[in-house]
Structures are given as structure tokens and as C-alpha cells.
């Protein structure tokens, strides 16, 4: 046993540590620091407690024993405490030391912070410091604004702009550091007085949608301002924000209309805005409904001004034409056009011409055919009010009927297998009250040698119509033959329907 | 012939049920109750059972969307919490889908009877009445006390179904009485919708559309439909709403027959975009071997085939009593070989990814065609017949409770408490 040296009353000297490489990560640095402040720990771990020198053993065990007191887990009397510190000081025991396995926590992606490279960690700390600094600026702004408002004034615009920049920078930092989203509205001091009503949905709600963050925020503000019935410019902008993301929202449009009315905004400006939205959302229905509301509201104010009404009719039909260029069969646009014709009494050659042009472009555009039928057979000057389209209307002038029949026939000759023109022909005939037999000659030209070797059919719709013509004439056999040939050869896709017609024939 | 890839469809619907719907659904946020109904109803059709936890969760979510003044809001976006709740907005479609979903979320006789527990029937029916306009049409929601929205047949259909589901065919001296909507005006409005080509639109002046035809015929069907399968049929001699509401029935049948088209797969692939959005074969070209292999349906004349129109047209015919058959085999092949998607569900067109709307209506029409893998289908309510049976029980249960007999028992037995 080595003789007791004087030094033995002091702690055992720290064994010479092998030169360790400098730490790369936060975790490595913590470990190194732990060992540096917990002398003997590493050696004890490497060689085991039994292999330590007695001095080391003593120091090691004393170092462990002082822990409960240093951590305030064991209270001592004043006297005992004095004795304790005396001993610690005398033996130079490591009283201030790091704990093992310090938890640095996780970042927003769930990565443990102790795996960060030191430089990255430094950068992160810098960001945190920057955020704290910005927060001070932000609070100063709030305080200044409060003070200004108490004095009945507002802060100058530059300061508000400065604050917006501060918040934008804070939002970026918060997102980077903690994954917290601060939406554009929360960043805008103009919305500070609104307490948003977010959707509080349970985790297991049905049909949850991965809403974009901006949508969730915009809707939560919209709910708040709609609840307080605020009608203001900023709310108008907010409706636009929501409409851009969810044009099918069924109350935001009504709310927007209410704001437009309350603020007495120029309706034509609103229509101009709507044009842009419509072009971006071709399939949306609410847009056209909103347009109708606007027109219903606006028209009475200009009804005595024929120039203004004409101007409106022109700009509206121009826009309709433009959007129909993009989507020639757009259902909502055509429906709106029908509304507009009724509202502005556009029973004009120009309107008929517009439909006609679209038929010329595409003879199978059924929407355009439909519109033509409407313009001709709903014109109050030439028709009986309330006459159903499926009923004869004696008020329609013969010239009109003849013109329409000729038009349909001309287009049928162009494309005999086109459903739209045949439907139109039948529709006109029903309106006229004339017998189907009057179409026999015209229709028969599309069919030859029926039931014979040389049978040729240019149009299954002609054959269909012929069956009705023969039936009306009382020639059941011929009608049946048409139907049989439709089922077997010329239109087998509707076989079931033709066979049903045959059965009806025999009733 | 391709079959329904049941396993894949099950997977598709489980994804819809268990995870977030993708961001593009944001633009249909206002119809989340419809998505919820389609998802749960697809589970029902495919016989995927719900655990009791699931059923409780579905119920409580649906009921959380109920408006304090009657009706259901389309999504949590439209329903406000706590004291602000009356500032939310209920709408017709959401209310229809809410009631069906509540029925789907019940299992067995007892639960079915209590499926509508918590539905404010009186308030809802009064709200429904307020939604009707003088011309007989219905708005989609109230705004400042007045019905707003279009006047199209969708709203008439939804109103008619809701009335059937909740009101039953009450006589005026029955309890609990609620003022009825104006049925005569309703029929008159629908009658004004038939177009010159036999089809139907919001107004007869608009272009005919198979979807509006379905809704008009459905609305009329439910005006005539007895409260339950066992209730007495009306006198056969009396004029039905269906008779009164369609001025030209042969024209309507012709319009519906016209929705079928021989689908030429090759031509759709060649297409650039939707530009040439119909596919019409040359006349007489179908008689070749294997002619009408794929039969598609469109919604309007000269438009392109689309999965959902197989449903809208075939279902409308079924409601009219299917006076003639459509080409079931060809249509099934169109759905199963052309628009059924490899990952499950159906797309709108060939090659388009599946979405809830087309996936559900694809299943629905296959069920109408009697697909062995799917439950028997109620073509009027667009859910399984089993679910309709539950709705009838639920109505019965709710009526009883409203009379006060079971009200207390329901409130206190904790049956639905989670």
C-alpha cells in the first residue's frame, strides 16, 4: 500500500485524459462536459470501481454522497451545512457538475436536438434570440398603439407597415423553429381586434379535409366577422380570400352581397371583379347566382335610363360570349344567359344570332340549340305566356314556325346523325301543332330500302321519327319495321327502348 | 368480364374514412356531410361493419352539425360553437345526408329506432316549410329569414325526401302535427321544368339535364311513396304526383333512353382534353362483332360519357318503374372496365383518378343493376334498402318520442353516451 501522502486529503488528481477529438454535435459536447465536470466517472466506468486507487475510491464515493444535499433533496441544519461545505471545499469535490443525459428536446420535425451539429445549434439559438428581440418590438408596437388609441389617434402608416414586417419575420422564425403557422391575417395588424373562431374538430371527425393553412385561418376570421355582422372593406377582402379557396361556400357569397349593399359599392365594379373570378372557376355555380343577385339589385336603379340598360346588356352579353369561348357548353353560363334574356328582354335578332353563331361553330352544341328554342318560343311577343315547351302554342306565327323548321332541316342535312337538330325539329313541330306526317317526305330521304337487301340509313333519328310518323298514319307494320331495324342494326345501344316501343305499338 | 374489385373498393373507402381527404377537397368543404354520407354508405353497401365506437363517433359528429333552429349545417365551417351556434347556417343537402348517415350509423332494431334521437324534428320541419317559395320551389338555405339559392329540382328532391324521412304521411288530426309544405305548388313547379326534348331542367327554358331529371322524378316519387313498406298504398285510381308532375312521360322516357351511347374507348384516349366532349359513333357502325361492348351515359345530348350519368339516368328510369331495360351488361362493362380505378373507386372518365362522388355513384348504379357484391339498393334515397328500413324505424321512434312516451327514457339511459 502506498504511504499516505499529504495530497491524499485532497481529491485524487484527475487522471490524464486522452486527447479527445472536439465535439461535433450538441450531444457529444454534453457528454464531454459531463465527464469533465464528473471527474473519475469515466475511469470508474472503464476499469470498474474495484480497480480505483483508495484515494480515487474515496473521492468518487464522496462525490456521489454530496449529491442529495447539493440538489437540495436532503435538508441539513445550519451547523451540518457548514460542516458539509467545509468538507467539500477541503476535498475539492465536484459540487457544480452537469447531469447525465440532459434532455435537449426535439425540434418541430421530431429530431432530437442533441443530434444537431454545433454550428446548426448555434444558428437555431440565434433564431430564438432574434424571435425574442422581434417580440419586444411587437409588444412595443401594441403598447404604442394602445396609447395612441386612448388618445384618440392612430399610429402612422409607416409604423403599421414596419409592424407587418416584424410579424412576417416572426412568422417565418416561428415556423422554422417550432412549426407554428401564423397566417397572413394574424400577421396583419388590421385584424388584431377580431378574435377568430377556429373550427374545433375532434380528431375522429368524419370527412376531414387537409385544409391549406391559409384556408383554416381565413375561415376562422370569416366566422368571427359574420357572427358580429361586420360589414366593411376588410371583410369584403376576406370574402375574396375565402372565395378563392372555396367558391362553393354557400354563405360567403350572400355575406359579400350584403357588404356590397351596405357600403354602397359600385355594382359594375363588383361585376368586373366577378368576371375575373368566373374565368378562374368555370364550373362554379355560386358565381352566377351572385351575378343574378347583383343584377336584380342593380337594374331597378337604372331602369329609367335606357342607355345605361343597353350598355349593361352589351357588356353582359360580351362577357357571356367570352366565357362561352372557353367552355361552349357551360351549363351555368347558359342558364344565366337565359335569365338575362328574360330580365333585359333581349328577344332580339342579335340574341338569336348569337345562338346561331354557336350552332354554326358546332352543330352538335345542344346548349346553343336549347337557347335558340328558348329565344324563339319564350318570346312574350310571339308566344302564349306559360305555354309548356311540350305543348302546342297557337300564338306562334306561322312564319316563325316555318323559319325554325327550315333551319333545323338545313342543319340535319349537314349532320344527319346529330341528336340536337332532330330534337329541335320535333320540338318545333309540337309547338306548331302540325301533324308529324308533314315531316314524312323530309325524313324519308335519310332512309332507303328499309328491310331490303339494299337497306341504307343515314340517321337513326330519322328512323325513330319515321316510326312515329307511320304510327300516326296508322301503318303499324311499317312503324314496327323501323323499330325492329333500329334495335337490330341501326341503334342497338337502345335495343331495350326500341323493343318497348314495339310493345307499345301493339297495345 | 371484369368484376367489381371489391377488395380494392373497400381499401379506397377505408382510406377515405380513416385519413384526411386531400387538399383539393377544400373547394367542397361546404358539402362535407355529403362526403361523410357517401363514405359511410359505401361501407354499408360493401358490408364493412362499423364498431360501436365508430357508430357513436359518426352519430355525435353528425349531431354536432345540427343547427339550433332546425336542419343541419354542411360542415363544421358552417356551424358555430356554443352561444354563437344559431349564427351558423343549415342547408337542405346537408340535412338530407345527415338523416341518412344517422340511420347508417345504427345497428339492429333498437339502435335504428333511436337513430333520429336528438334530431329536432319540429324545428326542422318548420325550417323546411320556410324554405319553400310561393312558386313551389325550395331554396337551399335561409338568409335573413328568406329562402335563397337556385330554384332547381335538386332542392325539391331533397325537401321531398326530408319530408318523407321525418314527417311521414300524417293526417292533420295525428299527433305530433307539423304544418306541411305546399305539395300542390311543389308539383306545379316541377311540372314547369320539362323541356322540348322531353328532358328536365330548373326551368323548361333551360337545357335538359339527366341530373335534374333524377331530382324531379325523385321528388315526385317521395310525394307518392307510402311511409313504410308496410303502410297502405294509396287508391290506385287517384292521380299520383308522378302523373301530375311530368307533362310528357313518353318524352321523358325518350330523353332517358337517349342518354345511352356506345362508348368507344379508343377515341377517348386520343382526345387532347375535354374539347370534343362527346363521342358519337357513325350510324350503323355498331353491328360489328362485339358491337355495344361498352355502354356509357351522358347527362345532356351530345355530351361525353361520365360515370355518374349511368347512375342519374338508369336510376331515374328505375324510379319510373323501368318500362324498358337499359343495356345493363354494356353499362357494367363500361363501369368495370373503363372507369373503375386500379386503386379502387371510380373516376369520372377513363383514366381519371377516383373521387368520392363518382366512386359512390358508380357503386350505387351497380347496386341498382343488382351486383351480387353489394346490398340491395333503394334507388330513391340512394342508400341500401336496409338503411331505408332503419330510416322508417327511426322516424317511428322519433314520432313516439315526440309524443313524450320514450323521451325521458332516451335522455337518461345513456345509450349513446360514449
From TrEMBL, chain A:
Gene3D superfamilies linked: Protein prenylyltransferase (1.25.40.120)
Cofactor dependency: Mg(2+)
Compositional bias per record (Basic and acidic residues), positions renumbered to this chain: 17-31
Source taxon at top rank: Eukaryota
Keyword tags: Magnesium, Prenyltransferase, Repeat, Transferase
Chain intervals with Low complexity compositional bias: 1-16
EC numbers on record: 2.5.1.58, 2.5.1.59
InterPro entries noted in UniProt: Prenyl_trans_a (IPR002088)
PANTHER family referenced in this protein's UniProt entry, alphabetically: PROTEIN FARNESYLTRANSFERASE ALPHA SUBUNIT/RAB GERANYLGERANYL TRANSFERASE ALPHA SUBUNIT, PROTEIN FARNESYLTRANSFERASE_GERANYLGERANYLTRANSFERASE TYPE-1 SUBUNIT ALPHA
Family from the record: Belongs to the protein prenyltransferase subunit alpha family.
Protein name: Protein farnesyltransferase/geranylgeranyltransferase type-1 subunit alpha
UniProtKB/TrEMBL annotation, chain B:
Membrane-crossing residue ranges in chain numbering: none
Protein name: Prenyltransferase alpha-alpha toroid domain-containing protein
Cofactor(s) needed: Zn(2+)
Record InterPro entries: PGGT1B-like, Prenyltrans, Terpenoid_cyclase/PrenylTrfase
Pfam families in the cross-refs: Prenyltrans (PF00432)
Family the entry assigns: Belongs to the protein prenyltransferase subunit beta family.
Keyword flag Electron transport: no
Annotated keywords: Metal-binding, Prenyltransferase, Repeat, Transferase, Zinc
Domain Prenyltransferase alpha-alpha toroid residue range list: 4-382
